[in-house]
Design brief:
Number of strands: 0
Number of domains: 1
Helix content: over 70%
Number of helices: 4
Distance between the termini: 44 Å
Oligomer: single chain
Strand content: under 5%
Radius of gyration: 15 Å
Low-confidence stretches: none
Order of helices and strands: HHHH
């Protein structure tokens, strides 16, 4: 199994596992961000050792589905993908897309205190 498929498999497993918790959205958000942070670390290590890399499209996908805080931490922590263009521009666009979609979803499905 290649690294890209493994990343997506972990994402699916995290999503399924989060459904079994009392707060599935919070658990999914935390899981996606931790997973994204780890993927940035794995990709940085692969870059240093000339190993198999995680495709940029996978890194961007994990950011757009909500893992962008973990991606930002991973970029700074591992000093990875902080200067590379056009990735930097695409990443910023993915963050904005995620924030707009989340704000729109909140307008349609506001969270209420129970």
């Amino acid at each position: 199994m290649n690294l890209k498929r493994f990343c997506y498999l972990l994402l699916v497993l995290a999503g399924l596992a989060s459904m079994l918790t009392p707060s599935p959205f919070v658990t999914a958000f935390i899981s996606i961000n931790v997973l994204t942070l780890l993927i940035y670390g794995v990709d940085k290590r692969a870059a240093r050792k000339a190993g198999y890399r995680v495709p940029e499209s996978t890194l961007l996908f994990f950011g757009v589905i909500g893992g962008w805080p973990g991606a930002m931490i991973g970029q700074q922590l591992f000093r990875h993908k902080t200067q590379k263009q056009p990735f930097k521009t695409y990443f910023l666009a993915s963050v904005m897309v995620n924030i707009v979609v989340m704000a729109a979803l909140y307008q349609v499905y506001p969270m209420t205190g129970a």
